[in-house]
Design goal:
Length: 386
């Protein structure tokens, strides 16, 4: 018995690793997504009554980590089953659960998540995408940026605001916007990043939505937004899974790069021993391995707290795990590229493209500095500069 991981978790890890090995680094994203969905991996965290596995983020993070460690990370897992399906499972109406959860669980439906705005960036309190009551439904207007996978998603969960009838203040609300809704325009951003999922700038130009586009519904509440502050609660419910899954994404990528480097260092020989015998090559790889393991330990802590219902405890741990995993991933990839010498920059080995990809985990969904701010203020009680 492994004290850190149950047999069930280790079996899941091994099964996903085997699937990942079959697909490999030149994977067909849609084919892998479909197969992972069919095998029940994309919905391991969702309730059984909607076709999910009845597990939690602990299981879902294993799936993403292992697919990444095999060189075929499924980026959309961070948003579709982890954020969107979690929010709908926890706050959606019965109709919304029936409509979306079975498909999100088996991968036949995908949902993107849009919160970032050009003029708000890290300061999500400044978002201005606004919903107005329009007859029975809503009209949504605003702009989003860097939203991943909108073209391959059936809908995007858009974070907007509605005006509080009493105070006039804008408060968050989450809307499910179908891909082809009128007035919902997307343009792909020309990223240096080489990934199968594209990032989009979105324009919501008076997008007319039915009443049931609002997560949780609004009809039965005087404030029209599924209950006082429920939008904020819904948003927070998605944030911890997002950070834990980004940590899994980073750890998977870091492990993949490290594995390639270790294999290379064992066989490449330019003096009388393989290069891996030189401590200048071996020690940084050992260090990268330690840092990835440490990050995984924090990720497991965050996932365990979240799955146990401790949202507050999970908040600190999820931030720390995302930070540690992002840093460990960037260092592991950098060292892996260096270990391969000139080959580190060839397309054949495919490691150089990870230099850019690894940076994503440092920037998104919340930057390294914003996590350091969180820990400074929330954990250490230091004063704020902003
Ligand atoms: C590949 C990729 C995929 C993404 N996918 C999605 C998605 O699917 N959906 C979505 O909504 N968003 C997505 N994003 C957006 C991502 O969440 C943002 O890029 C991120 O939150 C940072 O916002 P920003 O880019 O506007 O940077 P800014 O907020 O402009 O920050 C720029 C720099 O200033 C620093 N900074 C800002 N404020 C402070 C402060 N108070 N103290 C110290 N430093 C500070 C930041 O740390 C950062 O280094 C994605 C981004 C990328 C790169």
């Amino acid at each position: 018995m492994n004290a850190m991981e149950s047999q069930e978790h280790r079996d899941l890890r091994e099964a996903v690793a085997a699937l990942g090995r079959r697909h490999g680094k030149d994977f067909d994203r849609a084919a892998l997504w479909a197969e992972a969905g069919k095998l029940g991996y994309l919905g391991v965290n969702l309730p059984e009554e909607y076709g999910g596995g009845g597990g939690g983020i602990s299981e879902l993070s294993i799936v993403l980590e292992e697919s990444g460690a095999a060189g075929c990370p499924l980026l959309m897992m961070i948003v579709s089953p982890a954020i969107c399906a979690t929010v709908i499972a926890r706050f959606g109406t019965d109709e919304q659960k029936q409509r979306w959860l079975p498909g999100l669980a088996d991968g036949s439906l995908t949902m993107a998540f849009g919160i970032t705005e050009p003029d708000a960036g890290s300061n999500s309190h400044r978002i201005t995408t606004t919903a107005r009551r329009d007859g029975d439904g809503w009209t949504l207007s605003g702009r989003k940026v860097f939203v991943s996978g909108v073209d391959i998603a059936d809908a995007t969960l858009i974070v907007g605001r509605t005006e509080d009838a009493r105070t006039g203040r804008l408060k968050p609300c989450l809307f499910i916007v179908p891909r082809d809704a009128e007035g919902f325009r997307r343009s792909a951003i020309d990223m240096e990043l080489q990934a199968q999922e594209k990032q989009f700038e979105l324009v919501l130009d008076d997008v007319r939505l039915p009443a049931d586009a609002l997560v949780g519904g609004g009809a039965s509440h005087a404030d029209g937004c599924g209950g006082e502050d429920s939008g904020l609660l819904q948003l927070f419910a998605g944030l911890n899974p997002e950070r834990i899954m980004t940590a899994a994404f980073a750890i998977g990528m870091g492990r993949y790069a490290l594995t390639q480097a270790v294999e290379y260092a064992k066989t490449r020989q330019v003096w009388k021993t393989p290069i891996g015998a030189h401590q200048a090559v071996a020690h940084p790889l050992a260090q990268a391995h330690i840092e990835l393991e440490l990050a995984r330990l924090m990720m497991q802590k965050a996932a365990a707290l979240y799955d146990a219902g401790d949202d507050t405890g999970a908040g600190e741990a999820a931030n720390m795990a995302k930070y540690a995993a992002g840093e460990a991933c960037v260092k592991a990839v950098d060292q892996a590229v260096h270990t391969l010498g000139g080959n580190g920059l060839t397309r054949e080995y495919g490691l150089a493209r990870l230099v850019t990809a690894a940076r994503v985990a440092r920037i998104a969904p919340v930057s390294r500095e914003m996590i350091l701010n969180y820990v400074s203020h929330q954990s250490l009680g230091l004063p704020k500069s902003y």
